[in-house]
Structures are given as structure tokens and as C-alpha cells.
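Figure 3 (text version): C-alpha cells given as input.
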């Protein structure tokens, strides 16, 4: 188990950028595959991106390919989501999650953060 805290959310206009951070507590961060999810009001939670334990492999939802980049710094116990060319449909609560699975994307995430709000205005 690992505790996760997201930050970096905010309000931007269409076409703007944000970088989200997810800080992990503990000394086993490098053993987890990490992912980002988002959920808009009234909609199902949606997978966004995942990154392997070493950071060598990534996987993205089609809706964000070419616009979002997931990365991690294991020495800092942090995973990032760089969000460019933002659209109103990107508006959601963004949460990070950790999985013990090695495949991309994992089928199950055992630890979740509380989320950070991203709002994109047209």
C-alpha cells in the first residue's frame, strides 16, 4: 500500500496547459505501476494514462494521445501528468493510482489519491 496526494489542478482556458503532480508516501514507490484517471460529474471514471515501474513504458487513452505525457521520478516519489492543448472535455477530477501489476495498462489499482480538479473554459 502507498498513500497518494495530487496537486497542480486549476482553471485554464482552451488550449492551455497544466502539470499535475502525485506525491507518494513510503519507500516502495518504485515497485508500483502508476496511473492517472479522471471523472467528470455524472460520468464514469475514465482511464487516462499509465507508466511502468522504471518509467520506461507508457500507455495512453486515445482521447489524450499526443496531448498528455505521463512521467515519474522515483527518487522524488512523484508521478506527473503534463497536460497540453487542453479542451473543455478534459474538465474533471484527476486522480492518481498505484498498482502492483506489471502490464500496461493494469487491470486493478489498489491505492488511490483524493484527486485534484481541472477545469477548462471555452
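Below: residues designed for each position.
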Amino acid at each position: 500500500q502507498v498513500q497518494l496526494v495530487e496537486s497542480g489542478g486549476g482553471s485554464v482556458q482552451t488550449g492551455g496547459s497544466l502539470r499535475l503532480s502525485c506525491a507518494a508516501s513510503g519507500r516502495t514507490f518504485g515497485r508500483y505501476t502508476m496511473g492517472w484517471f479522471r471523472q467528470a460529474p455524472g460520468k464514469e471514471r475514465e482511464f487516462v494514462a499509465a507508466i511502468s515501474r522504471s518509467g520506461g513504458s507508457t500507455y495512453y487513452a486515445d482521447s489524450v494521445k499526443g496531448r498528455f505525457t505521463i512521467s515519474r521520478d522515483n527518487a522524488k516519489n512523484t508521478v506527473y501528468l503534463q497536460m497540453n492543448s487542453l479542451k473543455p472535455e478534459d474538465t474533471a477530477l484527476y486522480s492518481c493510482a498505484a498498482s502492483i501489476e506489471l502490464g500496461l495498462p493494469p487491470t486493478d489499482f489498489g491505492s488511490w489519491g483524493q484527486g485534484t480538479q481541472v477545469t477548462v473554459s471555452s
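The mean pLDDT is 97.
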